[in-house]
Specification:
Layout: H1 24-38, E1 42-46, H2 53-80, H3 86-123, H4 164-179, E2 189-193, H5 196-199, H6 202-208, H7 215-221, E3 257-259, H8 263-266, H9 270-275, H10 279-287, H11 304-316, H12 321-331, H13 335-342, E4 348-352, H14 353-357, H15 359-365, E5 373-376, H16 382-389, E6 392-395, H17 396-413, H18 419-444, H19 466-475, E7 477-480, H20 482-489, H21 491-494, H22 498-508, H23 510-529, H24 545-557, E8 563-571, E9 587-595, H25 600-608, E10 611-616, H26 622-630, E11 638-642, E12 652-657, H27 676-690, E13 695-701, H28 704-715, H29 722-729, E14 731-734, H30 742-755, E15 763-769, E16 787-791, H31 801-824, H32 840-857, E17 868-873, H33 880-883, E18 895-896, H34 901-914
Parallel strand pairs: 1-10, 1-11, 2-4, 2-5, 3-4, 5-10, 12-17, 12-18, 13-15, 13-16, 14-15, 16-17
Antiparallel strand pairs: 6-9, 7-8, 8-9
Helix pairs in contact: 1-2, 2-3, 2-6, 3-11, 11-13, 17-18, 17-23, 22-24, 23-24, 26-32, 27-28, 27-29, 31-32
This protein binds iron/sulfur cluster.
Iron/sulfur cluster (SF4) binds near residues 267, 268, 286 and 295.
Length: about 900
């Protein structure tokens, strides 16, 4: 019997879970996840913040991994001999002992590594950073010769991304690796989140898990797999009296966990970090250096044992990215390369999104997702990240700068460049020249002649806020396919082989050389101007223009059906275009390559992995993730799970407020947002709320423009003087337009909430914008948000050419898929008439809106003891379709829809009275 034929039944109890007994929703989530992994599903899981999501995800997936290991052993034993005779029994016993011995030997190795690390740490008090024992490393840029393209810069060779020096190094490293004993790779869980700071929360939860340790138990437990009763760690609870077999230290199994990061986070070569901007490139160059100039943190050839010891230390003790870098410094070994070596034996790998989602990053790290488990946490960020990873953003001035730099470079080095290089550089100049000309013409056609390039032809109204400026930009935007752009750039560009130029750029590293030369000229000019002239702050850390051009050309060369170029007219004079006090600036063009469809860039992950879990606190509407990422999958492979909250139902009140105090229906569509009676109704509603809500209260508006309208109207005594009235009950704050002001506003808001007991005010009121700086990622627990109010529905602006293009695209894709499904319909069956209840474009539009609403209301109720009211202001919230897109624990029947405003106040009064707190 092979291991593949053994099915792992879903456990009833997860004894590894650190908190016993788990809440029902936690147990349900774990069972759902275990089943999804076992049955190779793609699943979307919604588990609100504060419900122990991370613990549940880790416990279920590692329990499956533990059971899977036992299943694999069982398979091996069964494959060795199947009979019940004496010989078969002996064969199985011998193999069992061998497996045990191997496992114990490996555990001993890790125990030794743990001990060694402890010794190193205790010595680290007197540890000093190892110094490179030889001469200082050569700077990368040394004289004009270093600006010449790398050898072999002619198209056609393989490994276009690698210089010959790096290729030689890779070959050397491979040969070292090949001399080592092959390490057994194991099935693993890749746990991704958007940032390292989110990932640091994973390891503390991992340490709390109670997975039984000791090989003997694991081996013996194998026999349970055949039992009819569901087998799990929990079912073995009684027999897991491990003290008789294992020492206390090994009572619980320490999963081999590894944090993966980029060189940016893990490089410990301080000298290199101080010297270069591009650490990846700097490191590659160092690796290719001769012995004396190589990075001192890489053990010399023949001493790989130090690297292997450090790899074992990494696996023996889970470390987050900061601890990993620190351990590297203590050991004097590069943690970036050591962590790469640890991948095959790691059971849990935490990594940021970009390392999981970019194929090039996976390949560089040696990550193979075949049959592995992928967990994507903070899943609401997945689609935006997939789209942004492929986006290239540039402007007309950047194109002009790149053109100037290449022209200067070619003029200077013309006689030193070989003909092949010169040909490619001339082609690059053709491209840049054509792009600059076309963008300039595109701009000139859209500004009024004689208007000093400051006034947009399409808009006669001068915008006064960033929002207005933004909405004006939307009117002056055009979306093209890459083929259309190339055609408009002219005949010369049409004749270029874009792929050939891109290959040349990558192989010759000419972008870096040209940028380096341009930098040198600027520095020289600054020196000539005198000591007081500094490098402008704006230039420091800026990606060199040619690197962006290289990215754009790469995107154009490999453009897929869903790639688009957006051209947007931008006025560079700042928020106030028509301001008389500012000097007039010319308009410019913003150029953006972007994708309409995130799915192809996640498809590799989905197709290779055994199971994919997209988890988040707020994933509703779940259909959005399914439609956008998994339309190509058979429906039976996709599942979902949305659980309630562990808070008792009486800790949350969700109300759809459909009418104001005047009895008028609330409708905050864009056309009504400047209407004085609408603003007056809204002011009265918020005023009534401030009188009853204790502590902090956050009101989210659908746009800055609407918030500005309300602020202006409420400031006037003639229009109710609402701002003053709010302030009598709660100190009023507004979301700042600039990111720099956010921290200070939040600090003042929190102080006002905390200090309200000593003033006549009952807390603070924060007026913010959905989808802006305060609606995601912030934690407004307890008194910081006893109510979240959402005004209207934040539907995106349909005037946006980009949005319209995306909606057209999803509609076309849906029709294509429907045709395919019809073709696949078996004879006699009814062919599908639609893939879902609603047109794909309308569904996307509504889902984008509800995603934003759900993120905003998710700021409150952050832990099991928290409580708050969530108030949704607009009669459209009573629609079944909208209600169905709220998180399950808030929408559906949990949403209260009183007929009149008086009913809303009554509900709120009862809710806050029951909590013993009112405003
Ligand atoms: S080998 Fe490691 S420590 Fe050395 S430069 Fe590269 S990343 Fe930095």
């Amino acid at each position: 019997m092979s291991s593949d034929t053994l099915i792992l039944p879903t456990p009833e109890i997860f004894s590894a879970f650190p908190y016993t007994p788990p809440y029902n929703i936690q147990a349900q989530l774990m069972r759902h996840l275990y089943e999804a992994i076992e049955n190779r599903k793609v699943t979307v899981i919604e588990s609100p913040t504060g419900t122990g999501k991370t613990s549940s995800l880790l416990c279920a997936s590692l329990t499956w991994l533990h059971d899977e290991k036992n299943r694999a052993r069982k398979g091996k034993l069964n494959n060795a001999a199947t009979g019940d005779d004496w010989v078969s029994t002996q064969t199985r016993d011998r193999l069992r002992r061998q497996l045990e011995a191997e496992e114990l030997e490996y555990e001993q190795r890790l125990a030794d590594a743990r001990q060694k690390e402890a010794q190193l740490k205790s010595r680290a008090r007197v540890w000093k950073k190892p110094k490179p024992d030889d001469k200082p490393q050569q700077p990368f840029i040394d004289g004009d010769a270093s600006f010449l393209p790398e050898d072999g810069g002619t198209p056609g060779d393989d490994d276009m991304n690698l210089s010959p020096a790096v290729k030689a190094l890779m070959a050397r490293m491979d040969s070292h690796t090949n001399n080592e004993e092959p390490e057994m790779a194991c099935t693993k869980i890749y746990y991704a989140s958007r940032t390292h700071s989110q990932l640091t929360q994973v390891l503390p939860e991992l340490r709390k898990l109670k997975i039984p340790g000791c090989s003997m138990v694991n081996i013996n437990a194998v026999s349970n797999l055949d039992h009819d009763v569901p087998y799990s760690l929990g079912k073995r609870k009684e027999q897991d009296n491990l003290s008789s077999i294992c020492s206390d230290d090994h009572k619980y199994y320490q999963s081999r966990a590894l944090s993966l990061g980029s060189r940016k986070h893990l490089c410990i070569n301080a000298e290199l970090r101080a010297r270069v901007k591009d650490i990846d490139e700097g490191c590659r160059e160092l690796l290719a250096e001769k012995k004396e100039n190589r990075c001192p943190y890489l053990p010399p050839v023949g001493e790989e044992v130090r690297m292997n010891e450090f790899r074992d230390q990494i696996l023996a003790n889970p470390k987050d990215i900061e601890d990993l870098a620190l351990s590297g410094r203590v050991s004097g070994i590069c943690p970036y390369f050591a962590s790469r070596k640890a991948i095959p034996q790691a059971e849990l790998i935490t990594l940021p999104y970009n390392l999981l989602l970019q194929k090039s990053a996976r390949e560089a790290l040696g990550i193979n997702l075949k049959d592995q488990i992928v967990v994507v946490d903070e899943g609401h960020n997945l689609i935006p990240t997939l789209l942004s990873l492929s986006t290239v953003h540039l402007s007309l001035p950047l194109v002009q700068t790149a053109l100037y730099q290449v022209t200067t470079y070619v003029t200077k080095f013309r006689n030193k460049l070989n003909p092949a290089n010169l040909v490619q550089l001339k082609r690059l100049l053709v491209f840049l020249d054509a792009l600059a000309k076309y963008s300039g013409e595109w701009r000139d056609m859209r500004v009024e002649p004689g208007a000093n390039d400051t006034q947009c032809a399409q808009s006669k109204v001068s915008p006064t806020t960033k929002t207005e400026q933004k909405s004006q930009q939307l009117e002056v935007q055009e979306v093209l396919t890459p083929a259309e752009l190339i055609e408009r750039m002219g005949r010369k560009v049409l004749g270029l082989n874009m792929l050939e130029i891109v290959n040349y750029l990558k192989k010759s590293k000419i972008a870096r050389k040209i940028s380096g030369y341009a930098e040198k000229l600027i520095e020289q000019a600054e020196k000539d101007l005198g000591p007081k002239k500094q490098v402008p702050a704006s230039r420091k850390g800026v990606v060199p223009p040619l690197h962006v051009i290289e990215d754009l050309m790469t995107a154009l060369a490999g453009a897929t059906d869903d790639g688009r170029i957006s051209l947007t007219l931008i006025n560079t004079s700042g928020p106030s275009i028509a301001s008389k006090s500012r000097p007039k600036q010319p308009s410019t063009v913003d150029i953006r390559y972007h994708l309409l469809n995130p799915a192809p860039h996640f498809r590799d992950v989905v197709d290779e992995a055994r199971a994919v879990i997209i988890a988040g606190g707020t994933m509703s509407p779940i259909s959005d993730v399914q439609n956008q990422l998994f339309s190509h999958l058979p429906p039976q492979r996709i599942t979902s799970f949305s659980c309630g909250h562990i808070i008792p139902p009486e800790n949350v009140l969700t109300v759809a407020v459909t009418k104001g105090p005047s009895g008028r229906e609330l409708d905050f569509r864009a056309g009504n947002q400047g209407d004085s009676s609408t603003l007056s109704d809204l002011g009265q509603i918020i005023l009534n709320f401030t009188r009853i809500i204790p502590g902090g209260m956050i009101v989210f508006f659908p746009s800055y423009k609407f918030l500005e309208n309300a602020k202006s109207a409420w400031a006037l005594a003639t229009d109710g003087g609402y701002l003053e009235k709010f302030d009598a009950k709660k100190k009023v704050f507004f979301e700042p337009e600039d990111q720099a002001g956010v921290e200070s506003v939040l600090q003042q808001y929190a102080t006002a909430v905390a200090g309200s007991s000593t003033t006549s005010q009952t807390g603070a009121l924060l007026l913010a914008v959905i989808g802006a700086k305060l609606s995601e990622g912030l934690n407004f627990a307890d008194d910081l948000a006893r109510a979240v109010v959402v005004v209207g529905l934040p539907f995106a602006n349909l005037a946006s050419a980009e949005l319209r293009e995306r909606m057209r695209y999803v509609k076309r894709e849906e029709e294509k898929l429907l045709r395919e499904r019809r073709k696949e319909t078996v004879e006699g069956a009814q062919p599908p008439t639609a893939l879902r209840g609603k047109d794909a474009a309308a569904e996307l539009y509504e889902n984008m809106c509800m995603n934003a609403v759900n993120q905003s209301i998710g700021r409150a109720i952050r832990h099991r003891g928290d409580w708050a009211a969530l108030l949704l202001l607009d009669q459209r919230y009573s629609n079944l379709s909208i209600r169905g897109k709220l998180p399950k624990w808030l929408g559906g029947d949990n949403l209260v829809v009183p007929g009149q405003f008086g009913g809303v106040m009554k509900q709120m009064g009862a809710f806050f009275h029951a909590k013993g707190r009112t405003g």
